[in-house]
Design brief:
Its EC number is 2.3.1.30. It comes from Hirschia litorea. GO terms for molecular function: serine O-acetyltransferase activity. 42% of the residues lie in helices and 14% in strands. The longest helix is centred in the middle third of the chain and has 17 residues. The chain contains ten helices and 15 strands. A six-stranded mixed β-sheet has the order 3-6-9-12-14-15. The protein has a five-stranded parallel β-sheet with strand order 1-4-7-10-13. The chain has a four-stranded parallel β-sheet with strand order 2-5-8-11, with no helix packed on it. With 278 residues, the protein is α/β, with parallel strands linked by helices.
Length: 278
């Protein structure tokens, strides 16, 4: 990072108002200064690139590359996806910001960009999703398989995922083919958006915007989870959930409604006793 770039980034600040790429470069430069043994890594992953798109394509390819398809080949596929669908990078920025805002363990944007498997698995899915809509389903399935192997996150490339999504830890997350997830949702580990049988039609949940889903929760079947709902940890949800309501249990029952206005952003898993239903 040049001296002028450092000055510009510092002038903009490292808070949420600063552009994501600018913040990422500044953080990488600082990390390289503090940990010289990793300076080459930070340079290769972030500082040697001219844009967030280039850096992310490199990072995803380095992770997913292997004997069947090398990193350079995957990098070219990622570049094509980002080039032809400008919405992907907008979602990437919102996803990064979501992790930064909602995960108290996240100190910098550099952490999820380099190390968090929830973020990396979600971005690899975004490339697979683009491939799916280019009728390149075989390569899309290859990317899905690599994502599952690498990160423990299994998202069907046909599933529809919104922007500003945070997957905390993400191990064991499974999202089925006809699932839909709205913007600004937060998932804990072990979440399953699955089916209930062998139907070949629309068979997976439709999750609204701003929904918080607790660890190991299972939402099964073609049901609707309303905007800003909360799903309690380890719950099994088999019926629709209304907007703003909290459900928990096996099978899940309504515990409270309008208990938390934006649960996915607040990351509030507690239920106020005064608002619990009988």
């Amino acid at each position: 990072m040049s001296e002028s770039e450092v000055k510009t980034a510092k002038a903009a600040g490292t808070g949420a108002a600063a552009p994501v790429w600018q913040r990422l470069r500044l953080e990488a430069a600082e990390a390289a200064r503090r940990e010289p043994a990793l300076a080459g890594f930070f340079n290769a992953a972030v500082l040697s690139h001219d844009s967030l798109t280039q850096a992310l394509c490199y990072q995803l390819a380095q992770k997913a590359g292997g004997p069947d398809m090398n990193a350079l080949q995957i990098r070219e596929v990622c570049k094509q996806a980002f080039l032809e669908d400008k919405n992907i990078i907008k979602c990437v920025e919102r996803d990064l910001q979501a992790v930064s805002d909602r995960d108290p363990a996240c100190r910098t944007l550099l952490q999820p960009f380099l190390f968090f498997k929830g973020f990396l698995g979600l971005q690899t899915y975004r490339v697979a999703h683009w491939l799916w809509h280019q009728d390149r389903d075989v390569l899309a399935f290859f990317m899905q398989s690599r994502t599952s192997e690498l990160y423990g996150v299994d998202i069907h490339p046909a599933a529809k995922m919104g922007c500003g999504i945070m997957m905390d830890h993400a191990t064991g997350v499974v999202i089925g083919e006809t699932a839909v997830v709205g913007d600004d949702c937060s998932f804990m580990h072990g979440v399953n958006l699955g089916g209930t049988g062998k139907e070949f039609t629309d068979r997976h949940p439709k999750v609204g915007k701003g929904v918080l889903i607790g660890a190991d929760a299972k939402i099964l079947g073609n049901i609707k989870i309303g905007d800003y709902a909360r799903i309690g940890a380890s719950s099994v949800v088999l019926e629709d959930v209304k907007c703003g309501c909290t459900v928990a249990g096996v099978p899940a029952k309504v515990i409270a409604c309008i208990d938390c206005e934006e649960p996915a952003k607040a990351m509030d898993h507690l239920i106020s006793p005064s608002k619990m239903q009988d």
